[in-house]
């Protein structure tokens, strides 16, 4: 099943839930594809075809080639290391939690946490730029102190879903964790 939500910045995101078995669930948040942010209406913007052509003819071709090259390298770096298309969470009650980030270039980054290390999954809040933002995180159990927490692992850092989507993700994770505890 797929539902539409919004991210903390207001962009549309989609949450897809897939139940593989009673103790295995996959949750994926899909971000929008790369789109230009600003579009000028036709005839607006100060440059028409003749002025662009004149500018290109008059400019030094080495400077123009260097600018195009630097722009393309920057775009490739952005697509490979920054732009995340989808973040997913695979929760398997008896095994663990696998978090995957899929980048626009096709690269994937995966983290696996064994269920024995998971103390809980919670919605946490933080203050960022005069706003309160919420995020889902995994609390890892401290091996030296069973009541303590050794680390907090934030999830869905790129898509930044709003609280209504986080509640859905939280409920799904808690259902699987409760089955493992009983």
Describe the structure.
With about 180 residues, the chain is α+β, with helices and mostly antiparallel strands. The protein has a single domain, classed as Roll (PH-domain like). Helices cover about 25% and strands about 40% of the residues. The protein contains three helices and nine strands, in the order βββααββββββα. A six-stranded antiparallel beta sheet has the order 1-2-3-4-5-6.
Helix content: 25-40%
Overall tally of domains: 1
Poorly predicted ranges: none
The helix/strand series, from N terminus to C terminus, equals EEEHHEEEEEEH
Please, what is the average pLDDT? 84
The largest sheet, given as strand count, sense and whether it forms a barrel, is: 6 strands, antiparallel
Number of strands: 9
Fill in the CATH topology: PH-domain like
| Strands in their spatial order, largest beta sheet | 1-2-3-4-5-6
Computed CA radius of gyration, to the nearest angstrom: 22 Å
- Number of discrete helical segments: 3
Q: How far apart are the first and last residues' alpha carbons, in Å?
A: 27 Å
């Amino acid at each position: 099943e797929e539902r539409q939500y919004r991210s903390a910045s207001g962009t549309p995101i989609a949450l897809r839930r897939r139940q593989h078995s009673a103790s295995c669930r996959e949750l994926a948040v899909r971000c929008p594809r790369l789109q230009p942010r600003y579009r000028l209406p036709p005839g607006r913007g100060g440059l028409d075809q003749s002025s662009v052509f004149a500018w290109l003819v008059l400019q030094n071709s080495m400077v123009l080639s260097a600018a195009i090259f630097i722009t393309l390298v920057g775009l490739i770096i952005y697509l490979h290391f920054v732009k995340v298309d989808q973040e997913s969470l695979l929760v398997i009650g008896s095994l663990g939690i696998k978090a995957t980030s899929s980048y626009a270039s096709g690269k994937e980054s995966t983290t696996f946490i064994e269920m024995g290390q998971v103390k809980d999954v919670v919605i946490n809040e933080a203050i960022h730029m005069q706003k309160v933002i919420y995020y889902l995180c995994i609390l890892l159990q401290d091996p030296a102190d069973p009541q303590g927490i050794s680390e907090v692992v934030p999830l869905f850092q790129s898509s930044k879903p709003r609280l209504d989507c986080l509640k859905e993700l939280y409920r799904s994770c808690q259902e699987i964790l409760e089955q493992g505890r009983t």
